[in-house]
Amino acid sequence: MLRFKKYSGRIIYAVNIKRIFWFLVLLIFLAGLVITTYSVQQSFIPVVTVTAETTAVREVENIIDTTVLTVIEQNDISYSNLYKLKQNDNGVVSAIESNTKNINLLKSQLSISINKEMGQLQEKTLNIPLGSIFSSAMFTGWGPKIPIKINRVGYASVDFVSDFVSAGVNQTKHNIAVSVNAEISVILMKQNLEFDIQTTVPVTETVIVGEVPSFYKN
Q1: Domain total for the chain?
Q2: Using the 8-state DSSP alphabet, how is residue 156 labeled?
Q3: Helix (H) or strand (E) holding 64
Q4: Residue 126: which of 51, 47, 68 has the closest Cα?
Q5: Do 195 and 150 contact (CB within 8 A), yes or no?
Q6: Residues of the chain falling short of pLDDT 50
Q7: Beta strand pairing call for 93-98 and 125-129
């Protein structure tokens, strides 16, 4: 008993040193874990956000493209339905006359159809495979799914745009397209993200022989 008492102070001192050592090891481990987690989040979240935006925008653009093509086919829209080439006495195209009535009617139909289809996206959940976030194509489509919930779909505005492109010697192509602007809001990992969408879908075209004529409305 006397020997135990003689060395008990050293034993307690050694035990305390060990406890302090392992406490420091645990503290360093936890600090490293926090720093690593923070670093991963700082580099991971921006990549996920970009991927989420790409996925959501692509979903909306596909709906817009499909809807526009469907309406065009159902109404059998051609260039002559929307525009008329006016010729002078020499048979040369001198002006392009737009059919305002048909254009406005088609614009209205497209607006109604697009907004109706986009409205069905409300509360829809899209999933991004974790592997698709990495740059390597090897992991694309693999891994657990990261959910993206489309929280809100803003009203899509529709407008017609046209441009002239050279199509060869003394020939010009007149392209008619639909420009659609929309906004969507998605929830990603408890964050609310808003994206603007602007896409253009070709409608019809024609080739004009000669100089580009002037426009005038019907």
Answers
A1: 1
A2: P
A3: helix 2-74
A4: 51
A5: no
A6: 1-6, 39-40, 136
A7: unpaired
Locate 58 and state its tokens. 């692509």
DSSP H or E run through 204: strand 191-209
The residue range of the domain holding 90 is 2-217
What φ, ψ does residue 145 adopt, rounded to 5°? -95, 135
pLDDT tens digits, one per residue of 97-148: 889 999 999 999 999 999 999 888 877 888 777 666 665 455 565 667 778 7
Rounded to whole angstroms, the Cα distance separating 31 from 38 reads: 11
Residue with token string 């135990």: 4
What is the rounded CA–CA span in Å between residue 119 and residue 117? 5
CA dihedral (2, 5, 10, 16) in degrees, to 10, reads 150
Type and span of the H or E element at 182: strand 171-188
The pair of three-digit structure tokens given for residue 65, joined into one six-digit string: 């493209």
Q: Please name the amino acid found at residue 32.
A: G
Name the token pair of 68. Answer: 């526009």
Residues constituting the chain: 218
